[in-house]
Amino acid sequence: METLIVERADGVATVSLNRPPVNAVTRQMQLELREAFDSLSEDRQVGAVVLAAEGERAFCGGIDLKETAAQQSPADLPLQNTTNPGWEWRAAQHAIRHCAVPVIAAVDGPAIGAGFGMVGVCDIIIASSRASFGLTEINVGLLGGASKAMNMLGPRKARMMMFTGRLQPAEELHRLGAVEEVVAPGEARARALAIAAEIAGKSPLAVRLAKESIVRIEGDEMERQYRTEWDYTNRLRGFDDSREAMAAYLEKRRPNWTFS
Fold first, then answer.
1. Are 119 and 170 in contact (CB under 8 A)?
2. Is the full-model pTM beyond 0.90?
3. In the chain, what are the domain boundaries?
4. In a structure prediction context, what are the per-residue pLDDT tens digits for the chain, which is 260 residues long?
């Protein structure tokens, strides 16, 4: 795969984001995430999955804005995006959330925007003390992530994160119950692998049915909410201010708002 490293050992699979320096999410990564997790769901030798990232600068810095900025015309995208915008990213997150075995996120740096959304569909989150989490889409003329934040942290914290774009430290998410453990820098992957190995040692049928039952009990409300978010994101991208926000970010200058 071009953007992921997938490894299997002793009943545990590791999927590592591999797009240095910040593992920004491209369309290719979205397609590969769906392919990887769909494949792991069918692998009887896999009892748990760890989702990690290469490099120390970031777990995931969000959507690749250079790629997004270059795709301003519907002709630049697959036809399905015209009537179902964002379907590739929703499909990738669906594959992670509905993976047949538990998925443990090992977060050892910032998980921003799409990175936060990716972590938000994992079953367990292990974070190092240098990890942080944020919905920074508001800074670049986009929206997204509110459904994950509301599910993980509650509606008030989700509002603060979405409206301000502020990053939240791992300790705060641990206090709110979203992060299972906070470990020393560099130790998140090892701790996640240890938990994954513990899970992989259980009855494989029991683990898979436990995972399926939890997902079914939760229902698909979060996925329906996320589709609504994408509708608003697509609506926002039609305004000049959205394009200005993204251009200003890429050009490292202050945006000039026109309310248009």
1. no
2. yes
3. 4-185+205-251
4. 999 999 999 999 999 999 999 999 999 999 999 999 999 999 999 999 999 999 989 999 999 988 877 765 656 666 666 666 678 998 999 999 999 999 999 999 999 999 999 999 999 999 999 999 999 999 888 888 888 899 999 999 999 999 999 999 999 999 999 999 999 999 999 999 999 999 999 999 999 999 999 999 998 777 788 778 878 888 888 899 888 888 888 898 999 999 89
Assigned fold of 4-185+205-251: 2-enoyl-CoA Hydratase; Chain A, domain 1 (3.90.226)
Neighbours of 161 (CB within 10 A): 23
Helices marked H in 134-239 — which ranges?
146-153, 155-164, 170-175, 188-200, 204-218, 221-236
